[in-house]
Amino acid sequence: MQLSNWAFQYPPIRDVWTKTVPRDTNILLTHDPPKWHFDANSPGNHYLSKDIRRVKPSLVCFGHIHGGYG
Fold first, then answer.
1. What is the C-alpha separation between 65 and 40, in angstroms, rounded?
2. Interior CA angle at 35 toward 65 and 52, to 5°?
């Protein structure tokens, strides 16, 4: 089921990250940024931030939020 026609396809309040990143992850690649990491006005994902802190991968690479440019 498609929720919308934008890149993330789920409402921002929906938690799709908690305990989804495997503990042995060394490199994590995501489309949206974690909250408070290079996201103007902090629209990044809070749940992603929490899972990154839980797993502590060596490297996290992420895209951007179009409304947070500049």
1. 9
2. 115
